[in-house]
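Example record for the data management plan.
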Amino acid sequence: MSGQTFGTEYVFRRGKSYTLRADLVDELRSYVTNGTPLGDCLRAAVCNDFKAAVARADSELCDNLVALMGYIVNEMPAACQGSPSNYHRWLRWRDGSVA
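Corresponding structural encoding:
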């Protein structure tokens, strides 16, 4: 399994290629670097609730959820993903509310 960023898209290869759109990569990067809250679909995925993520995803993202998972696991710090508590703790930390 490997992932690569081309321009601002993220391409994940696992037998075939899956592409995460540039606007979604930008939103995830803003969450990591600035603590910008995510929309419902990306928040669910970052919190490891892929059932909710699928329910909220548009058809293009549904076809490329493997790329979203690859980006979260390979490109984002573990401290900001994996559970709702990690998500909220990251937002508070980036906001300066938590030391």
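Summary line stored alongside the record: The radius of gyration is 13 Å.
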